[in-house]
Give the backbone structure.
Amino acid sequence: MIAELLLNADRHPPAASFSGLGVGRASGDVLEAVARLLRVLDRPRDLAVLAPWIEREILWYLLSGDQESVVREVVLTDGRLSRISQAIRWIRLHYAEPLRVEALAQLAGMGASTFHRHFQGATAMSPIQYQKHVRLQEARSRLMAHREDVASVGFAVGYENPSQFSFEYSRLYGLPPGKDAIRMRQASMRDRLVPID
């Protein structure tokens, strides 16, 4: 999508040095588009049609802002961030599988130590830590949406030991998985209740 936007706009600014991470103040345009995207998340029919357009809008504003070089780096096929993004994509798709850093480095076309350094620079985490976060996010989503039992969720996202799953979940979210799921459901119910005047 970024490559298409760059081509359609005929934008070819000089390449900047690789940074992996950019921090800046979000413009009002970006914030408004993100707010619209969040509003359609609970409306699946609208989401299917509107989300791709809103995502394009957000990317366009990012390409037009002070983080343009960081966003552009994503599409550069020989850029390090692009190669790291291939590894990130693999982790997100295969989060429940065992992770071999050497295999990910090979996928990214880098040596293991170079890959580890650039992965850490792009995500502020090691590959193993990143996989753990993806697993725990998926677990939290499952617990909230499907009311599955905690052990089954842990196994489904790649944990072989329920106590390890519970420990790491508690460390990230502040509560054991079962209690966190109850708290999230209660908060969701409170948010849906509308006072009648």
Summary: The radius of gyration is 20 Å. The chain has eleven helices and no strands. The mean pLDDT is 84.
